[in-house]
Specification:
heterodimer, A: alpha+beta, 49% helix, B: alpha+beta, 48% helix
């Protein structure tokens, strides 16, 4: 449809998008009010003139080929805001901030003076673009935070592992300290720990509890550090005063260990490992459930190991005889469950070797 | 529905599509700093059974599609279909945003719409001008999903004819595979065939 009559594009002034009509000779046929406001180019300055001096990029290879195809093949074009955000430089109210625009080119069926026409619709997508940018920034921040937290978590785990190793090293050092002074205690705590852990596992204690038992057993005799070596290794029976001195190792152990912040009841275990269910033990004469579980397990393991090991004041006895002794004290001196489990363990072939 | 094309018609359509892809490649080249290599497209006329098989067997891969509908004496739609990773690589090459990042995701749809617009304009515009017909075009629509989703959106199963164009672009270090699905709705197919035959009369 060719028109030689004026085409009334003024109706496009009512539309808030930027709209202009370009002829296929790249002359501006119409420039709406919004385009005037955005570009600060008055209608009368541009209508009837080539757009190229004002917007030279229209003549570049990037744009002119596609625009000419639009006229020739009457195909619509999109100049996306992602790739052509300032296709027509458009400004906000202050006249400074460039808008981000998306431009759609629609070839018109109407021709003017036998020349093709195309409607350019310039849409302000600044707010949408900014919202998307903010969203992407926020997403990036979240990812960075997640990564930082993951790294912190990793550092914490590494730190925890180091602390665990330090603790193990410290326990070993403490074990070694007493064993250096008393050759008969050397290895005793380690063997007691081995039996006590087997008992604890068989009783169904948690892995953490078993670790605790191991630590308690490894240093339960640390209080012996205050006993003179000649008393510890005396080949004959002890005098009353010497006996009382030896008995103090439980109290001494408690006082050494009570100031150490450690996640298991090592101080209580050291203090109570000579207590007996019927109150006949020492140093406090505790009864039944007053004695912590760790001490009840230690009591059996400690006595059994001591009986089957050689001492300067008496020879070792057989495992069977030692188990008989423990069995005789089942429920009165020693925790019945612990005794039963201990017997099972030896029946299953446990050995200190 | 019986779809068939003579060898001459297929040759003619292949040539027209090739020219159209060349037009598209020129436009894409001018948008990017690097050269786009285009390989000769392969055309295949798809039967409804083949389209159904495509929907079922090729439905596990994530795809992106940009569709352009057209009306006129020949009517239907053209869809540029790319695997999601290829689409991501294309957008990355065009925008400079690193692949598989939130920044890239934020520019994907708009950029792909424009790429689809360029490619489909090239192909459909060349078909129209070569066959001396006019199309009324819609604006490109971005879609994503599995093949069955993309075929469903163009009502492929009700198409009178479907022509699948396998095109291979090489952009910078990426090899990007794009397929163009041309769907013709009734009674377009005969008009298409007549138009192709007429090329030989000229």
């Amino acid at each position: 449809m060719n028109s030689t009559q004026p085409i009334h594009f003024e109706i496009l002034d009512d539309i808030p998008n930027g709209l202009f009509v370009l002829g296929e000779d790249f002359k501006v046929v119409f420039w709406n009010r919004t385009m005037e406001q955005w570009t600060k180019i008055a209608r009368q300055e541009i209508v009837g003139k080539s757009i190229l001096p004002i917007f030279p990029h229209f003549g570049s290879e990037k744009y002119s080929g596609r625009i000419k195809d639009a006229f020739k093949q009457r195909v619509p074009l999109i100049f996306s805001s992602q790739l052509h955000k300032h296709f027509i430089p458009s400004f906000g109210a202050g006249g400074k901030d460039l808008k981000t625009v998306q431009t759609i080119v629609t070839p018109l069926k109407t021709r003017l003076d036998d020349k093709g026409l195309a409607l350019f619709t310039v849409e302000d997508v600044t707010d949408l673009s900014n919202a998307i940018s903010e969203h992407v920034k926020a997403l990036k921040q979240i990812r960075e935070e997640v990564e930082m937290r993951r790294q912190s978590q990793q550092e914490l785990e590494n730190s925890h592992e180091k602390l665990k190793q330090t603790l193990q090293g410290t326990i070993k050092a403490m074990t070694h300290t007493i064993e250096v002074r008393d050759p008969y205690t050397a290895g005793h705590q380690t063997r007691v720990a081995k039996l006590a852990c087997e008992i604890a596992e068989k009783m169904g204690l948690t892995p953490d509890q078993v670790t605790g038992i191991n630590v308690c057993a490894a240093i339960h005799d640390i209080g012996k550090i205050q006993i003179p070596s000649d008393i510890l290794a005396k080949p004959t029976g002890l005098e009353n005063m010497e006996r009382e001195l030896v008995k103090m190792h439980a109290e001494t152990g408690r006082s050494i260990l009570s100031d150490i912040e450690i996640p298991w009841p090592v101080a209580n275990a050291a203090y109570q490992h000579h207590e007996r269910l019927d109150g006949s033990g020492y140093p406090q004469g505790l009864k039944g459930d007053e004695i912590c579980l760790e001490a009840r397990i230690l009591a059996v393991a400690d006595v059994l190991e001591a009986m089957i090991s050689h001492r300067p004041y008496r020879p070792a006895i057989s495992v069977d005889d030692a188990l008989n002794e423990i069995r005789n004290g089942r429920g009165t001196l020693y925790d019945a469950n612990v005794v039963d489990v201990c017997e099972e363990i030896f029946k299953d072939g446990f050995s200190f070797d | 529905m019986t779809i068939s094309m003579t060898e001459a018609q297929m040759d003619a359509l292949t040539e027209v599509v090739n020219i159209g892809m060349g037009v598209a490649a020129n436009s894409l080249n001018s948008m990017m700093d690097s050269h786009i290599e285009l390989h000769m497209p392969e055309l295949h006329v798809a039967t409804p059974a083949e389209l159904k098989a495509m929907a079922e067997t090729e439905s596990h891969e994530g795809l992106t599609g940009v569709r352009l509908d057209f009306r006129g004496i020949i009517a239907g739609s053209g869809t540029l279909i790319m695997p999601q990773q290829d689409a991501s690589n294309m957008v990355s090459a065009l925008t400079g945003e690193p692949p598989n990042t939130p920044e890239l995701n934020s520019v994907m749809v708009g950029t792909l719409n424009e790429v689809g617009n360029i490619v489909m304009n090239g192909v459909l515009g060349t078909i129209a001008s070569t066959l001396s017909v006019e199309f009324d075009y819609g604006l490109p629509t971005y879609e994503w999903g599995e093949m069955r989703d993309l075929l469903a959106s163009v009502n492929a199963m009700d198409a009178e004819a479907a022509i699948i164009v396998k095109a291979l672009f090489k952009v910078q270090q990426f090899e990007i595979e794009g397929n163009i699905l041309l769907i013709f709705i009734a009674p377009s197919y005969e008009s298409l065939q007549s138009g192709l035959d007429a090329l030989y009369d000229k």
